[in-house]
Amino acid sequence: MAKSFIVADVGGTHIRVARFPVQSQKPTVVKRINTVGPDSPHDRLLNLIAKVIPNNEEIAAITVAAPGPLDPFAGMVYEAPNIPSWVNLPLRKLIEDQFHVPVAIGNDANLAALGEWRFGAGIGHRSLIYITVSTGIGGGVIIENQLLLGERGLAAELGHITIIPDGPLCGCGQRGHLEAVAAGPAIASWMEQEISQGIPSSLSDRKPITAKDVAEAANQGDELAKAAIARSATYVGTAVADFLHIFNPTLVIIGGGVSQSGEDFLNPLRTAMNEHVMSKHYLDNLTLTISALGDDVGLMGALALAETLNHSKT
Amino acid sequence: MAKSFIVADVGGTHIRVARFPVQSQKPTVVKRINTVGPDSPHDRLLNLIAKVIPNNEEIAAITVAAPGPLDPFAGMVYEAPNIPSWVNLPLRKLIEDQFHVPVAIGNDANLAALGEWRFGAGIGHRSLIYITVSTGIGGGVIIENQLLLGERGLAAELGHITIIPDGPLCGCGQRGHLEAVAAGPAIASWMEQEISQGIPSSLSDRKPITAKDVAEAANQGDELAKAAIARSATYVGTAVADFLHIFNPTLVIIGGGVSQSGEDFLNPLRTAMNEHVMSKHYLDNLTLTISALGDDVGLMGALALAETLNHSKT
Question: A40 is in which domain, residue-wise?
Fold first, then answer.
């Protein structure tokens, strides 16, 4: 009998669920729903999963990419920055109890790294780092073909390293982390601050400004918007040099909304990385690139996780 | 016939070579020589190895812990900060050509982590980070019982992450790295600077001041010396919080000369680490401790490497 994987990607605004035939990378169904609604986000997730499960097919596994910090070994979401009601949520058990099949959950940025390694920009690389820059900054690391998880599954939080001691407040409550100085909100607030000081920009009359506004203005040649994006990219590039010293990978993948600025983001990132690396040997055979899977990276990461689950169970 | 491992630890001031019977952790011979002398450091190493090789015993492997950056896969030392003549030195080949047995070399701080994991403070831990604070700051990381090497063996340079952007010059040529603000020379120069501004200390008449002087003065109650050590430990503790976010280990081991200050160093380190961690879950089951192997950590790390070499060859 044909078997399928059910994979889900839970974000702050949307939940997506897809069904993939085992050994296929083309989904037969993809459904999407808002994360917030009359019922709880996990009830909405469970209902959407039920909708994509076929009547006459066996389900090999269900996997979920979810915001962290979460413990993939315990199947527990400790807290989800954009889903306030998810605190110490036993997500794996909720799904297992309803569907009675093997279930695994993973941090969305970790699984994005796994997805890129298995199906995307990371194919053929043994060691890579993935950094997603959007509302927050998340990370995922592959070392010798293994996902770095750490002892409680909390590793690879690459957005939460100190860049400016006692710098701006970070979403995590600490100060001066990479996320606090380089993620979307930092780009937007720097832009607003410069405009308030009289620096000219096509966004002068816009308030509030979003990171997406800045990216679009930069695309259309706005110099201040380009500077805002370059400033973020320079911070990320300096941090990437540190990560090269730590992991010595052959590939760095940049994902998330901000990466859609393409070379406007990659160029200053590359310059800062090259300037801050302690030995040119770290740049030997190193590739810097944009995510190949784009918006599907969460689903494809969950699919890669489902494969490993299927292998370990059979 | 009895077999032996020959292991060496090459430092900036001394070379040590020991012979261990296979499956023993007690050396039968240890010899030591100055690194600098009339002949080259590698000739001195080769001669010392020859002296500890027994006439009637087979040698299973020769391993060397050496200063980095070095490529353990190519057996090549790129450069050694304290041994200026070692630039692109094919150290493994030099030893193989003379002794015709399996040879491996490793970065000294990486092998220290391996040694602590196999024989010292890290026994029973799957994931740990080792940080050595002395003239420089080196690192080693064990992830799921494997040494983190990176694609060219250049990973785990934990002393070379940016702590203060555009901060003091680092030994590697970059600025504001952990090594530049927290290693022995930074401790000594901060002490000299405070004294030159009239802050009282038992070391007021000493010039130049070394990190060892500061440690001894702190031991005898000198408040300024204690502050100098606490300042370094605070930087290291902030960086350790970042490393917890990156690796989520169960053990942090502090080695090197500065760690001999014991709780004078560990207390402020622990305080900074606890303050800067983004979630208390990173502290669950986490142990912070001093190196158990002390001055022998390089030899014991080389011994652990020799064991893996022996297993992979048989």
Answer: 3-112+295-313
